[in-house]
Design a protein that fits this description.
Blueprint (H helix, E strand, L loop, with lengths): L20 H16 L2 H13 L7 E5 L5 H10 L4 E6 L2 H7 L12 E5 L12 E7 L8 H11 E12 L5 E2 L4 H14 L6 H11 L3 E12 L5 H16 L5 H16 L5 E11 L3
Parallel strand pairs: 1-2, 1-4, 2-3, 4-5
Antiparallel strand pairs: 5-8, 6-8, 7-8
Length: 282
């Protein structure tokens, strides 16, 4: 895949990292696209893109674009004369984010680049708006990443981050004590920054952004095969066993009870996200 940078001057060579094509397809199908297509996620995305004020003709960047769920909506908003740049560590995921000929005519709008959130390969002030969606929760030095988001946006431009607060995860289950232990383990051991959502306002203020605002979004699913049931349900129970918080027997008991709730039609699972946005001073 050719990486087009157009008018965006690179100041560091692209980084070479990523996962293979098979793993990328699995991740996109199991996680990124599944989560991005849920009703609450679609509604939240429409709202936070509106709050960020993205419009026709603008130059916008998404850091950590993955398979392109958010990037596609950004491209539609800036089309036909704008540019939506997607950056990700994984070349394999960027291949999936590449607009397909049989899809919408976004090929002239979407630009893709491999790179690191902590060292963005763009000149300062290159973009009208910059966005990161569920990316900083995985970044070891989020303050460095926020500083980079601010650097590459123009004076008067907007920076937005939409991310999870892992400790807010809810799931229908009758055993509160066991569920709390599983949630605590999954929250702490599946991401780098489980509390990033609640830390963002301070990080934005420290980076010099003004007019910093916060909006909360709750994503809920009743789908037994949805992201929050599969990826943050039984998977977190597996993690709890691995780190020694619960035993294999407790995991089996918890999963059996969870499936009973699901079979009875009383299932719900979800998580709170925070969208924090601000303006780089003129």
């Amino acid at each position: 895949m050719a990486h087009r940078t157009g008018q965006f001057s690179l100041w560091r060579p692209d980084l070479v990292r990523g996962i293979d094509a098979e793993r990328a397809h699995e991740l996109a199908e199991r996680s990124l696209e599944r989560r991005g297509s849920s009703q609450d996620e679609v509604a939240a995305r429409a709202d936070y893109l509106e709050l960020l004020g993205i419009g026709p003709g603008e130059r916008v960047l998404e850091v950590g674009c993955g398979s392109g769920v958010v990037l596609r909506d950004m491209a539609r908003k800036v089309a036909p004369n704008g540019a939506a740049v997607g950056l990700d560590l994984s070349l394999a995921l960027l291949e999936l984010a590449q607009p397909r000929p049989e899809g919408e005519a976004l090929g002239s709008v979407v630009l893709l680049c491999e790179g690191d959130a902590g060292w963005l390969p763009f000149r300062g002030g290159a973009f009208d708006a910059v966005l990161a969606v569920t990316t900083l929760i995985h970044v070891p030095q989020p303050e460095r990443a926020v500083a980079e988001l601010v650097r590459v946006v123009r004076p008067g431009g907007r920076v937005g981050v939409f991310d999870r607060d892992n400790d807010s995860y809810i799931i229908s289950h009758p055993d509160r004590d066991l569920t709390r232990r599983i949630v605590a383990s999954g929250s702490e051991h599946t991401t780098v920054n489980p509390w990033i959502g609640r830390q963002l306002p301070s990080l934005f203020a420290e980076a010099g952004l003004c007019d910093v605002r916060v909006r909360g979004f709750v994503s809920l699913e009743q789908d037994l095969e949805g992201f929050y049931a599969t990826n943050a349900g039984e998977r977190w129970a597996d993690v709890a066993v691995r780190v020694g918080t619960i035993t294999d027997v407790e995991r089996q008991q918890w999963v059996e009870q969870l499936r009973a709730v699901q079979a009875a039609g009383g299932f719900v699972a979800g998580l709170t996200h925070l969208f924090v946005w601000g303006v780089r001073p003129e």
